[in-house]
From TrEMBL:
It comes from the Bacteria. The lineage of its organism: Bacteria, Bacillati, Actinomycetota, Actinomycetes, Micrococcales. Pfam families: OsmC. InterPro entries: KH_dom-like_a/b, OsmC/Ohr_fam, OsmC/Ohrsf. This is OsmC family protein. SUPFAM superfamilies: OsmC-like (SSF82784).
Length: 156
């Protein structure tokens, strides 16, 4: 079995205010999130990423046969407190609620959904497969004191 590597995916996160952040991809697309009434939390973004990844897998194929009349996916999980004070999610679940027109294309699309959801889970959804595989996360830090607005930093 070979491990084929594709290009690296990355985002840049910047702080707008306390508990308010913007994630920006290389194309300049932005998502604002954080902690507050008008923001999605990082945990909610993780759930959205899992739901979005599988939704793309299902929608890409079914929409070739028929446009859905309803396409809703609920992602949920239980936050578990750990003895060491940390936490994690368990019992992650995606619930697909899709409807298609009652015509030949709609029936064809509806007949594909269960298989596509399984393929997404087992093979295609990078996000859920990464979570299930338990991929390690590395952390690096670079800290400066007295950093100038133009990006210059003090060095020792």
């Amino acid at each position: 079995m070979s491990n084929h590597q594709n290009p690296t995916h990355s985002i840049e996160l910047t702080r707008e205010a306390t508990n308010r952040y913007v994630a920006r991809n290389a194309a300049g697309v932005e998502v604002t999130f954080g902690r507050g009434e008008d923001l999605m939390s990082p945990v909610e973004l993780l759930l959205a990423a899992i739901a979005g990844c599988s939704s793309i897998d299902v929608d890409t194929v079914t929409s070739r046969s028929s446009e859905p009349t309803e396409f809703k996916v609920e992602a949920s999980g239980n936050k578990i407190a750990e003895e060491n004070g940390g936490s994690h999610l368990e019992d992650l679940n995606l619930s697909f609620n899709l409807s298609f027109p009652d015509d030949e294309g709609g029936r064809k699309a509806a007949g594909l959904v269960d298989r596509l959801v399984k393929l997404s889970h087992d093979k295609y959804c990078t996000v859920s497969r990464t979570v299930e595989h338990g991929t390690p996360v590395a952390f690096e830090t670079e800290i400066s004191v007295g950093r100038e607005e133009d990006g210059n930093k003090d060095t020792e």
